[in-house]
Amino acid sequence: MKKLFKVLSLVLVAMMLVACSAGGNGGEEKKEEAAAQEIVFWHTLTDHDFEMVQEIVDAFNAEYEGKYHVTHETQPLDGFSSKVYEAVTNGVGPNLVWLYPNTANDYVDAGLALDYSQYWTDADYKDRVEPGVYNACVDFSDGGMHAAIATITGSIMFYNKELLEKYQLAIPQTWDELLAACKTVVDGEKAEGKEIMGFGPDSVDTLGIIALRQLGYNYIENGKTNGWTSEEFVNWVNWWKEAEKAGYFQLVDPEGYHSGPFGNQQYFCYMGSSAGMNYITPNGFTIVTGPVPQVDLAKPYTEITTRALVSFKVDEATDAGTAEFVKFFVKADYNLPFCQKYSASTPFSDVQSLPAYQEYFNASIAQQALTEMLPYAGTRANVSGGSSVDEALKAALRSAIIDDADVVETFTNAAATADAALAG
């Protein structure tokens, strides 16, 4: 490239002249772009969900060109909450994230959590949602609105319909029924020379919390862990370990999410978020959904998940832009297509009233399965240190089941770690 330095110099000069002759617009656009307040958005969304976020970001950047500019980035799911905390507390993190509303608890006392109520009117959010949803957005020690819930999803079961019919199985209602069904399918398929796994969960911490709640423990109570070393929970974890060793359950799939392997008939069934519906591409079979298995049908429990935009304070200009983007993100015009892509329910009454939303909801087998469980569904505890508690529970389940560590010792140590996080 340097052989004809003189010629290259002339080309560069010509390029500069062309740029200058483009007139004031080009220069002004560059000035405006440089002056635009940069806002960084972290999430774990991929594929069509990433594309939907991109559409919203592009629309916002076009409307606020020269004033605000949003860049969004997908981060790995594993350890995401911890990565966000480390980055934000060290002053190098994003301006907002897509996580659970209680995530904000970890930042309120440090003065890092952005309060949307300082920038919005009631019409922007409060008047559009049920009181329970709004209360979850302001349920913090200082009463600020540090979360903006935008979707409602929850754990459901996905099954291979053809395998259910082949082995004349009903959709399992209890964990014991699920294990029995997995044994039937896995043993039957292996007898025909086909390798298949029975069951796996997408979220390890969700699995643990659901099991604890079904066993009668709140998992967090009065500022401490609850039930982690109880005889019932230890027995349940050991029961899972045996199912894993026998080749019927798999706590963690190498791909992370189970939707891909399930779609390729590598699993008979899996438990995942209703938001995972659109990630499944069934290869030669039909999907059916069902309820989360129970320990005791007389005392059912499952978890619903609200996802929210949680933002962090930086400076006045950036904070104002971040709040403006979140307000833009939750508008009906964007929440409707986002929920459709994300396979989620909306918390907003103006979106719920739209014919397009009602048509989508009524046609979704994922939403129908979730709706049937709502009478006994709950949400995670909204406490400071909650994210660290979830990570401790996840790590303990992985260690006990995958690494075959002693269950009592593992969860004793995990509870101590989680209690320390709760104590602040």
Derived structural class: alpha/beta
Poorly predicted regions: 1-33
Q: Report the biggest beta sheet as strand number plus sense, adding barrel if it closes.
A: 9 strands, mixed
Number of strands: 11
The portion of residues assigned to helices is 40-55%
For CATH, the homologous superfamily of the largest domain is named as Periplasmic binding protein-like II
**Any idea of the CATH class of the largest domain?**
Alpha Beta
Number of helical regions: 18
* SSE sequence, one letter per element: HHEHEHEHHEHHEHEEHHEEEHHHHHEHH
Number of domain modules:
2
State the end-to-end CA separation.
Answer: 60 Å
Strand percentage lies at 15-25%
Give the key terms.
11 strands; D-Maltodextrin-Binding Protein, domain 2; two-stranded antiparallel sheet; 424 residues; nine-stranded mixed sheet; 2 domains; alpha/beta; disordered N terminus
Summarize the structure in short.
This protein is an alpha/beta fold and 424 residues long. Helix content is 48%, strand content 15%.
